[in-house]
Amino acid sequence: MIEIARLQKVVQQSTLIDLPELNVAAGGITAVAGLTTPHKETFIQLITGQTAPTAGQIRLDGINPFAERTEFAQRVGFLPAEDGLYERLTVRQNLEFYCRLYGLPLDKAVAMLTQVGLQDKAQIRVQQLSPELARRLALGRALLHQPHILILVDPFHRSAPTTMEIITKTVRQRAAEGAAVLLIADESAALTAVSQTIIIMNQGRYSHSYQPSDQPTPPAHNLPFKIPARLEGKVALVNPADILYVTSDDGRTYLCTEDGRIPTHLTLTEVEERLARSGFFRAHRSYLVNLQHIKEMISYTRDSYTLILDGFQPDDTQPIEIPLSKTAARDLRDLLDF
Fold first, then answer.
1. Same structural domain for residues 50 and 170?
2. Element (H, E) at 139
3. Are residues 191 and 246 in the same domain?
4. Interval 294-298 mean pLDDT
5. What is residue 286's DSSP assignment?
6. Rounded Cα distance, 282 and 293, in Å
């Protein structure tokens, strides 16, 4: 259903994409990883028909996405990296708008909200949603017209484990119903868990591919316990017990200890996966907190919370304060039973 052959895109004598072949049959889930920003943007533009290839061809359910724009919209569900929702409308109104656009009955919106776990958020305006719940809604919009093909860009972006699980389950279900699914994202445990085949690109060119099912899964007790962090001229291996919290800032992830912030090449989600057995909690979209170092939870307003950790900021007498989202505050109460 997804067929790519001898695909090339050359811009100003620079080859941005060179992919000899990619095929995803009905029921298949394939991921393309390893694309840096300019190559990734170019590949997305090609696969969604926003630009024409320099050479080769793309066929999605038999159509040319560049030449047949109306058919593309009818047959393909597309989840971009940015959610692209109408923030002033409610969650339900967003999906009802697309129901009208596709000529679908409005009750399809209600059914989709249930599928992505947002049935209790139907009357909330999108601007009030947490980033991960907005991600679920954007996925629901892409699935609404039951497309034959799904193209998902960074589907797990801004998602906590619960949302990642819902997205994975939903994608697998749609594939089981006969859709062909193409994921465009960085390699991660979440991507490996849902994909049948992963194609690795290097500087926009095909490097190799593999099937995650063929990769041996190490026993849990053999998983890497320490977190690598790059320092000047060396790599430090940080014990999770020494980490007070982990934060993401300007695209970089930092391990925060009593001695200061240590940068790591891992994403916040990848660090979270490695620390899953070590008592860490996603307090906010940009913060993981070591539960053993939480001292207090302060409620400033009905929707505003802060965690106070043991110790102080390096070279400071101020306590460590971590923002806590409303949803995370509820989850923390359930987790610690208070």
1. yes
2. helix 131-143
3. no
4. 89
5. T
6. 14
Name the pTM for this structure.
Answer: 0.65
Q: Which residues contact 94 (CB under 8 A, 6 or more apart)?
A: 85, 86, 126, 137, 141
Last residue of a domain, one of 166, 192, 214: 214
Q: What is the dihedral of CA 83, 30, 221, 242, to 10 degrees?
A: -30
Paired residues of 199 in beta bridges = 32, 209
Residue 108's alpha-carbon distances to 113, 114, 178, 194, 230, in angstroms, are 9, 10, 19, 25, 49
Q: How many domains does the chain have?
A: 2
pLDDT per position as a tens digit, 202-218: 889 998 998 887 755 44
Residue 290's domain is classified under what CATH number? 2.40.50.1020
Structural domain span for residue 115:
2-214
Task: State how far the Cα of 328 lies from the Cα of 325, in Å rounded to an integer.
Answer: 5
Q: Give phi and psi for 311, each to the nearest 5.
A: 85, -170
Q: Across-strand partners of 15? A: 10
Q: What is the CATH number of the domain that holds 125?
A: 3.40.50.300
From the number of C-beta atoms within 10 Å of its C-beta (0-12, 13-18, 19+), residue 49 rates as: buried
Distance CA 283, CA 287 (A): 6
